[in-house]
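Supplementary Note 3. Input sequence used for the single-chain structure prediction.
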Amino acid sequence: MRCVARFQINGAITVCKVVSKFQIAYHFWGIMKRVSKGPKSLRYHTVIIELDSTLPRRNSKKPHLYIGTSLSTAEDRLGQLQRGAGPKFAKGHYLSVFAKSPYSKPANDPKIAKRRLDETIEKYERWGHMVNNRKNEWRVYVIDLKQEHLDVKPKSGHVYVGSTSKTVSERIKEHQYGAKTSKGHRLNSKYVTEHFDGLNKSFSPNEKFYTNKSAEEKEERLAEELCRKGYLVRAGQYTPNSKTCVSKRRTKK
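The predicted structure, written as discrete structure tokens, is reproduced below.
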């Protein structure tokens, strides 16, 4: 038995608390267990807030949205934003929590929370909402290519399929004449520049895409579709196998 603690009673009498070695060990085990747990784990919430109609929209019927991650619920975060928190472009424009929250289960891991945030933003942009003032638009285009250099001529023609966040006319000029970045990196396909034969407007979709992923998915589908119609198609990583008409990307899976 040991005396491990002394207490003053009425400022005069000292009382020694006697405990066993087992009690000492159990006491410190409890302390270490609490320390090992650390602070209460954080919970990251995805929040979606509707912004007023004075901000630009892609579709007049679909509001501009602020989508972010917060340690607070969507309702609490709305109050914080209305009191001045959040990005500058949206200050004074927060209306209400959009739709019904929560939109996904709160995450304890910040990496998982970031992935869910990106997925949510992409989903709402696909649905036609402008999100977080992101104004990028992508388009898919088709370029006709010359066939004289080919040993075996394709049944229907030779084309290149691509996607871009630039205007189609700007991207076509880069392919036609060649272009480089300020650091000297090539922006055009050398093969397309060598065999360029003009933009194929009839095959180039008129629709706009609001995420790079959705544009590339369309690029891949269109490349495979043209291959099935008898075209020899080039489309970077989405170039379809000339026999199966399945893109190189999907063939690797």
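The chain is about 30% helix and 20% strand. The two ends are 68 Å apart (CA to CA).
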